[in-house]
Amino acid sequence: MRRVAKLSAACIASAALALTATACGSTSSDNNNGSSTSGDGKGVKVGLAFDVGGRGDRSFNDSAARGVDKAKKEFGGDVKELTAKTSDTEADREQRLSDLADAGYNPIVGVGYAYAASMAKVAAKYPKTTFGIVDSVVNGKNVDSINFTEEQGSYLAGVSAALKTKTKHVGFIGGVDVPLIKKFEAGYVQGVKDTNPKIKVDTQYLSHGSDTSGFASPDKGKEAAQGMLDNGADVIYTAAGSSGNGAIEAVAGKKGAWAIGVDSDQYNIPGLSKYKNAILTSMVKNVDVGVYDFVKSVHDGKPLTGTNTYSLAKDGVSLSTSGGFIDDIQAKLDAAKKKIVDGSIKVKTTP
Known about the structure:
Blueprint: E1 34-37, E2 44-50, H1 60-75, E3 77-83, H2 90-102, E4 108-111, H3 116-125, E5 131-134, E6 143-148, H4 150-164, E7 169-176, H5 179-195, E8 200-207, H6 218-230, E9 235-239, H7 243-252, E10 258-263, E11 279-285, H8 287-299, E12 306-310, E13 317-319, H9 330-341
Parallel strand pairs: 2-3, 2-4, 4-5, 5-6, 6-12, 7-8, 7-9, 9-10, 10-11
Antiparallel strand pairs: 1-3, 11-13
């Protein structure tokens, strides 16, 4: 059984459970979308509480959605999806998870670290329901903490940026300055500096503290990336949910500049197809694998619990090769990966 680790961006949930189905494709941070898909009454009933941005963010949430979609296709059953709002309170998140449990959904997946405190409380109240949380650790006999070593994948993104920059100037944009996203920054900067210590690295966060709008504001991502481009950066890595879509758009408008995507292989995302020739690579965080493994374990009657970490060694994180833009540096990336896996390189988790 795979035990891997990985991380991702944070998110909050919205108020009461919406009872009417609405479209799931919106990337608005203020949608509290509720949608249901029904199977044959068999299989599993999965409750899926998305981070801000929800299904259709072309990044973190979509990766989690792919895991549930795969499980539903294989096992049948029902899925109920809810999407967080940037204005959510702790009470909102608690209510969302409780409503799913009351409605008989089992397992229930919280996509993002913002569900940690609420899940700890709700899981204790519903001991017969199995809960899974992505990007955080919640102690509970009925909780699976699904984590990733995003700093390791980000290190490789940093190596690729250092080898591709022509201006010796690169950038990192984070959605919110929380410990999870700091892991992306730490790995990326270390990868750049280990490759060429003379390269300048700009860093910027789109929102701070409890304000999670930085994960669902493409306009902010575009503005931040444009500022870095104007200052001379020619490779920009963004770990900011759907805000990264704006950053990619800005980079695509600058000849010779490269964007590095995150979480999903953004080169192959249909909604970003017109920018794909500017996407150097993506640091793929296989949230779908962790979520699928979790749902399957419940379906099989052997629920995963505890902390399961999806690492670089087990392909929990990786660099995408779509487009062939890193083919010429693949040998150096493989060498760096080998050193991380064998312990020769210790990747930092804080800047």
